[in-house]
Amino acid sequence: MAGVFDNPVFPYFAFYATVVVLKTMAMSFCTVFHRLTKKVFVNPEDTAGRGVKPSTHESVERVRRCHLNDLENVIPFVLIGLLYTATGPSLGSALLHFRIFTGARILHTIAYLLPLPQPSRGLGFIVGILVTMSMAWSILSNSKY
Amino acid sequence: MAGVFDNPVFPYFAFYATVVVLKTMAMSFCTVFHRLTKKVFVNPEDTAGRGVKPSTHESVERVRRCHLNDLENVIPFVLIGLLYTATGPSLGSALLHFRIFTGARILHTIAYLLPLPQPSRGLGFIVGILVTMSMAWSILSNSKY
Amino acid sequence: MAGVFDNPVFPYFAFYATVVVLKTMAMSFCTVFHRLTKKVFVNPEDTAGRGVKPSTHESVERVRRCHLNDLENVIPFVLIGLLYTATGPSLGSALLHFRIFTGARILHTIAYLLPLPQPSRGLGFIVGILVTMSMAWSILSNSKY
Question: In this complex, is the C-beta atom of C36 within 8 Å of any C-beta atom belonging to chain A?
């Protein structure tokens, strides 16, 4: 198993991993935006002085479901992607994985937040998982147990 | 602190880390399976054309709780495990940590989904945490602050 | 892009990353403590023999929200921080990032659990995000796409 940081694939991995993690973190801002504009807060210390009671709202819950789905899929991609980069894949194959995953998750987010009719969100979700599983397969073929 | 990728422990870490991340991702398929067979969807665009309204179901919620517990425990294991591998542990000690954690989380998942009577699930949960804390201790003893 | 594990910044990154991950995992113990002392369990196999029914409680939900917020912020910090360390930052700049983030998240946790009046929690939250975004910017400037 080759090194990862002296690897020609690594600077590309760093880029796409950072993009999808930033996209995940953007969901926090999206949640805060909906909470402030709709005055929907769940903690009593947040509602204090605003004249509202703790409550929930479908717009906020939708963003939060999207955020949780990102945690369930983007974090595994970054972890598996780092180990995959260490297996010394060809640059072409690695870029194909990174770019398809990034595109799929951006589609997933747009489809979730607008929302777009299904199966757009389901497509982004399943393509992302298939990319991660393909990288996982490469790791398992190059590892010891 | 020795390197991680030119480390004899790394190919083993790659294997066990990938196995537990794939196990976590398998919860997504389990959730989808329960949603489709029980027709339980939370988004209006998912229920469209199925003749059902958005709803929740205990079978789906149970899988989702198991998935969240995996995120809370498996992701820290992989992050801490990578840093632990970089401390240059002996192969025997590292394999002991990786294998016990993997076994504990598989027990946790089986105990959660069947479900098995307690304390089976609690045992898988606490053993996993103790393994991660033991690796964290090794890192803290070999790091600077 | 320089290596990460032969990097003078790495032993410091290992320390602060481990501290914030352990802090995140401590939320599990906090949840268990509230569940046991207030007899609040969500799974039927957990309430069996305790003479209570599955229920929820605001103290437990508050800790769980704090835990989820940690997952949404601490995990991205560790992933982005590892890639940032690989870009070969100066030790002074890196320590500034790691220490401010760690302090911000400890403030966030204290503010969430006591709770302290706002904007203490919001301050810990936003400072943590700004630190991670600053590191992400360094990665994007040093990566390829």
Answer: no
